[in-house]
């Protein structure tokens, strides 16, 4: 589970310092998401849970006549996004909760998100708020992870922790895998006022490490962020060294051509406001 206070605090700060590597980890997915988001003209777009802003910035550059608003509850991430977008005058980044944010004079015709919508404590209420603030026939396009079993970058890395320190799993609790079940997602969106809900399964290379020492890069990435980082930081020296040895062995098996790329599986979900 990753909740609001995590994103407002420690996890948000980590992601703000790691945006280059988190953007890289999603690189195999981002173009597909942007292609779907940009398949129709855009005048006003909201990027929900925009993090350090890569999707907002890409839309702002590709659609210079559109206005883009990126929303996130993490001040640290919005700070990073503002720095990255300082030269663009058609993108604005706001510290705001998508569950209650409404733009005055800004009814979006696109609501987009790369993995920023699975953390709502009340997803029906949050998506209903987004639908009510949107123009008629607004498109919703977001990505989220499919089942954990299809995402070994998360399950295998977590499984390398000592057995008594495995993270607890509640499939419906806010967190990276909360939208893995398409029936659940369709139910949430339909109840919230969205229609024509459709799912595209996208398998992508989750890039954990790259460069001359891609293995060290991937190791430090997983010790900083992701499914095992917080627990690994609490291990004593011996347990941590044993975990790192297991992690290295797992990552080495996926090292090829200066790249550690693991299997990632996502949905790109689309819908329309009624
Ligand atoms: C996995 S990160 C994805 C960030 C970014 N979209 C990206 O692809 O790099 C999830 C993001 O959702 C944000 N978030 C979580 N709950 C939110 C809410 N209720 N309103 C706005 N943002 C939220 C978090 O702060 C975090 O930046």
UniProtKB/TrEMBL annotation:
* UniProt keyword terms in alphabetical order: Methyltransferase, Transferase
Q: Which SUPFAM superfamilies match?
A: S-adenosyl-L-methionine-dependent methyltransferases
Q: Which GO terms describe its biological process?
A: methylation
Q: Which InterPro entries match?
A: Methyltransf_25, SAM-dependent_MTases_sf
Return the CDD domains for the record. AdoMet_MTases
Question: A GO molecular-function term, please?
Answer: methyltransferase activity
Q: Where are the transmembrane segments?
A: none
Please indicate which superkingdom the organism of origin belongs to: Bacteria
Q: Where is the Methyltransferase domain?
A: 46-131
One family name in Pfam for this protein: Methyltransf_25
Q: What is this protein called?
A: Methyltransferase
User: Which species is this record about?
Assistant: Tsuneonella deserti
């Amino acid at each position: 589970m990753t909740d609001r206070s995590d994103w407002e605090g420690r996890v948000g700060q980590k992601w703000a310092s790691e945006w280059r590597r988190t953007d890289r980890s999603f690189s195999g997915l981002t173009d597909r998401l942007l292609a779907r988001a940009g398949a129709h003209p855009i005048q006003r777009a909201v990027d929900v849970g925009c993090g350090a802003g890569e999707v907002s910035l890409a839309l702002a550059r590709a659609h210079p006549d559109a206005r883009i608003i990126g929303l996130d509850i993490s001040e640290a991430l919005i700070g990073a996004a503002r720095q990255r977008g300082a030269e663009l005058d058609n993108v604005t980044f706001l510290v705001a909760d998508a569950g209650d944010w409404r733009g005055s004079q800004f009814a979006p015709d696109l609501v987009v998100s790369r993995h920023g919508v699975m953390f709502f404590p009340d997803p029906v209420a949050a998506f209903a708020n987004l639908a009510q603030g949107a123009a008629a026939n607004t498109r919703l396009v977001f990505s989220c992870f499919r089942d954990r079993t299809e995402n070994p970058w998360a399950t295998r890395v977590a499984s390398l922790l000592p057995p008594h320190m495995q993270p607890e799993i509640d499939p419906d609790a806010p967190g990276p895998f909360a939208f893995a079940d398409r029936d659940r997602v369709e139910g949430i969106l339909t109840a919230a006022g969205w229609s024509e809900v459709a799912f595209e399964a996208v398998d992508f290379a989750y890039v954990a490490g790259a460069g001359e020492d891609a293995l060290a890069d991937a190791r430090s990435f997983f010790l900083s962020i992701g499914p095992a980082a917080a627990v690994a930081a609490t291990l004593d020296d011996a347990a941590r060294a044993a975990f790192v040895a297991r992690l290295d062995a797992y990552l080495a098996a996926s090292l090829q051509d200066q790249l550690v790329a693991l299997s990632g599986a996502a949905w790109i979900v689309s819908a329309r406001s009624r």
